[in-house]
Design a protein that fits this description.
Elements lengths: L12 H14 L7 H10 L25 H6 L1 E4 L8 E4 L2 H4 L4
Antiparallel strand pairs: 1-2
Length: 101
């Protein structure tokens, strides 16, 4: 795969291609809020037109929780149309997830 960049997924070439542009877009800026980082990331683009889409997941997630066998058996995985080998969403019904925090 070539030279590995720190903080990127080993198998995702899009991250490797975009990471230097993210670094340049945020260079010299103090990250005082999450919105600052989100806005800076959204300004990054490449010469060939690749741009950044940002989403902030701002809920608190409980750590150490294990997925049950029932959840694993009934979870629906939806693969992305453009890059299904790298981008997917795992969907579970609300009854399988349990109460929200």
């Amino acid at each position: 795969m070539g030279r590995e960049r720190p903080y990127t997924s080993k198998y995702n070439p899009i991250e490797h291609r975009l990471f230097p542009h993210l670094t340049r877009a945020t260079q010299g800026v103090i990250f005082d809020t999450v919105d600052t980082v989100k806005d800076l990331m959204a300004t990054a683009t490449t010469a060939t037109g690749l741009s950044v889409f940002t989403t902030v997941l701002d809920r608190v997630y409980e750590t150490g929780k294990k997925a049950t066998d029932e959840l694993k058996a009934n979870i629906q995985v939806v693969f992305d149309d453009v890059l299904p080998q790298w981008n997917y969403t795992a969907l579970a019904s609300s009854s399988q997830i349990g109460p929200t925090i």
